[in-house]
Amino acid sequence: MQARKKYVLLGLCACCWVLLFYWGGGVQLRLLRLLVRQRGDLVRPWPNWTDRAFLSRYAHLDDLQTETGIAESPRQRRQTWSAIYKDSRCRMETCFDFSRCRRKGREGFRVYIYPSEKTDRVSESYRKILASIAESRYYTSDPREACLFVLGIDTLDRDQLSGQFVPNMDDRIRGYPLWNDGRNHLIFNLYSGTWPNYTEDLGFNIGQAILAKASLNTEHFRPGFDVSIPLFSKDHPQKGGERGWLVRNSTPPRRKYLLMFKGKRYLTGIGSDTRNALHHIHNGKDIVSLTTCRHGKDWEKHKDARCDHDNLEYERFDYQELLHNSTFCLVPRGRRLGSFRFLESLQAACIPVLLSNGWELPFSDVIQWNQAVIEGDERLLLQVPSTVRAVGNARVLALRQRTQMLWDAYFSSVDKIVLTTLEIIKDRVFSHTSRNKFMWNSLPGGLLALPEYSSHLEHFPFYYLGLGLSPSQEFTAVIHAVSPLVSQSQPIMKLLQVVSKSKYCSQIIIVWNSEKPQPSRSKWPPMPVPLTVTDGRRKTTSRFLPHVAIETEAVLSLDEDTVLLTSEVNFAFLVWRSFPDRIVGYPSRSHFWDPLRHAWGYTSKWTNEYSIVLTGAAFYHRYYHHLFSHYLPQSLRILVDRTSNCEDILMNFLVSSVTHLPPIKVAQRKQYKELPGPQGTKSAPWASSEHFNQRQECVNTFASWFGYMPLVHSQLRLDPVLFKDQVSVFRKKYKDLERI
């Protein structure tokens, strides 16, 4: 009975709610709709906030910079992105096939480029990218060996209004038999989307491909998978590139102008808000912020009240003069998040002040950008002047120096941008032998610190000073032998005795490159240090192979006919321990620019200036053996082996490109100067004109590959204390060096 009463009560309550809703809410809604039809002036719909006629009641039309259409909400943007890129959650663990890079019988990380069709139009920038990959040590022409694939179709400009836009991309890439929904593929892109919103839509489904893209938004960036690259122009150099503009010891660190910007102003559309407001911080004195609306075909039809004044002010200042003389450079977003101003500021040592909210900075996975740029907020533009004024001189100098390091290491050429992209992906694939952030953000940069050599900083020659370390007090002598052993009085026998007497010598390795078979161990004299003879296979470059037997950090490279004293060896080694990242030795040469031939020249004349120290008698770090064998392209090593010449010049090119410093020459005896042999004897190879001409050609070939001339001239020669001073010889430690 009690239960029945409860159910009856609940039923009555439900009926009451229905009646209340019908007579209260439903009738009122119907009456409201009826009144709206009869008296439209009683209830007005919400205004369209992009309706310029409506907004003109509250603001002048010239001040309205709203974009066409209703702005997308963050949720709408994410939905749009998800619809375009269905694999937006890709990571290396889920969308990359590691097995392609770790198969037996293959040399790990190899990159294959799909062949382009004859009818394909390839832009200059994409041609440079493909050339950089094809000339790198990772390139393979066999797709079966590839770990990574790059499209031969130009994907840099995906703006549908561009003349370089390639249509029907989905159909074309699906025709690749190895596409596999984009797995293990790398797609390069500089421009995406089109007017008016410039979304990040590439116009085709990239699937599970890695995206190396400029102007990447942090919302769409897939961490640990995609790679953000800088926006660069078609005139960006293929190789080398210009050096940064920061002069060594430039003091004071501040320049004439505190802050500057000079560029386009967009009257409407995306990116217009930030650039339209830049005139507010311009004072014409230490802050120069100039914009112009004189761009595009119909700029006069759309110009506002400020255009004429801005254009006049714009012409008063030269852009290059501002770059050279400004401490900070504004880098506001354009139509897209990235801007050419970014690389221009880095090169000019003008500290970039970024106004591009949401921009994933280039190579952000490895570069610590807070050490080189100042990130502002587009919404807080008026705070920028006070922010940069508060930066102290020490901080300014540190930021400027960091811009130069990053520019030279990663951004000065297309080669470096592409190789940095590949190295970042390679570090992800082989994470157990990857670089740490210190290597990426310290000189000479991640491209020249090969993790295959070691993952310990103390094993590299350029980190000793920063770590407060010194090299070990032992060296390994590597002697290059090309003559058959027929007598115990040959120069190599005397050289072995001289070197082995050094208290710093740990072992001696002879690289046997003679036409005759190497002699047995009994033919060599007994010595106080271990002696190893290895087969050089008649390759000149074998003297620079990373021999496993070399256990010391220092290597003394010697020719078989080198004439030295033990004291000379000891002194040169002590000098090298103070400069472990450079070549330290005796015989020197120089290069010069020949304006008549428009080419580089090579000279062996004894002058007060030099740029090369020959490796016939020189110390250097063993890491350069690894760089020589694994960093330089095979084509250069083949050239050296074919001519049996120039290996010493190539090693000097390599070391100077790493350090940006000259080698170091130490004191030597006068009799060491190369002289022609007596009549009736076979002349040395260096004495022939053909040998000299080959070296001239080598200098130009090497400079062409590096993209610039890395050799640096010097007039420094380091002598022992009291060298040739008129004092008692008993006070001199290296008195034998003064004998003629």
From TrEMBL:
Keywords: Disulfide bond, Endoplasmic reticulum, Glycoprotein, Glycosyltransferase, Manganese, Membrane, Metal-binding, Signal-anchor, Transferase, Transmembrane, Transmembrane helix
Biological processes per GO annotation: heparan sulfate proteoglycan biosynthetic process; ossification
Cofactor requirement: Mn(2+)
Annotated family: Belongs to the glycosyltransferase 47 family.
Organism: Oryzias melastigma (Marine medaka)
Subcellular location(s) per record: Endoplasmic reticulum membrane
Record domain Exostosin GT47: where: 107-390
Bilayer topology: Single-pass type II membrane protein
Secretion signal, residue range per the UniProt entry: none
UniProt key word Mitochondrion: no
Taxonomic path: Eukaryota, Metazoa, Chordata, Craniata, Vertebrata
Protein name, as recorded: Exostosin-1c
Domain Glycosyl transferase: 475-723
Catalyzed reaction equations: 3-O-{alpha-D-GlcNAc-[(1->4)-beta-D-GlcA-(1->4)-alpha-D-GlcNAc](n)-(1->4)-beta-D-GlcA-(1->3)-beta-D-Gal-(1->3)-beta-D-Gal-(1->4)-beta-D-Xyl}-L-seryl-[protein] + UDP-alpha-D-glucuronate = 3-O-{[(1->4)-beta-D-GlcA-(1->4)-alpha-D-GlcNAc](n+1)-(1->4)-beta-D-GlcA-(1->3)-beta-D-Gal-(1->3)-beta-D-Gal-(1->4)-beta-D-Xyl}-L-seryl-[protein] + UDP + H(+); 3-O-{[(1->4)-beta-D-GlcA-(1->4)-alpha-D-GlcNAc](n)-(1->4)-beta-D-GlcA-(1->3)-beta-D-Gal-(1->3)-beta-D-Gal-(1->4)-beta-D-Xyl}-L-seryl-[protein] + UDP-N-acetyl-alpha-D-glucosamine = 3-O-{alpha-D-GlcNAc-[(1->4)-beta-D-GlcA-(1->4)-alpha-D-GlcNAc](n)-(1->4)-beta-D-GlcA-(1->3)-beta-D-Gal-(1->3)-beta-D-Gal-(1->4)-beta-D-Xyl}-L-seryl-[protein] + UDP + H(+)
Function: Glycosyltransferase required for the biosynthesis of heparan-sulfate.
Matches recorded under Pfam families: Exostosin_GT47, Glyco_transf_64
Pathway where this protein functions: Protein modification; protein glycosylation
Record-annotated membrane-spanning stretches: 7-25
Single annotated GO MF: glucuronosyl-N-acetylglucosaminyl-proteoglycan 4-alpha-N-acetylglucosaminyltransferase activity
GO CC terms, sorted: endoplasmic reticulum membrane; Golgi apparatus
InterPro entries in the record: Exostosin, Exostosin_GT47, GT64_dom, Nucleotide-diphossugar_trans
Superkingdom as given in the UniProt entry: Eukaryota
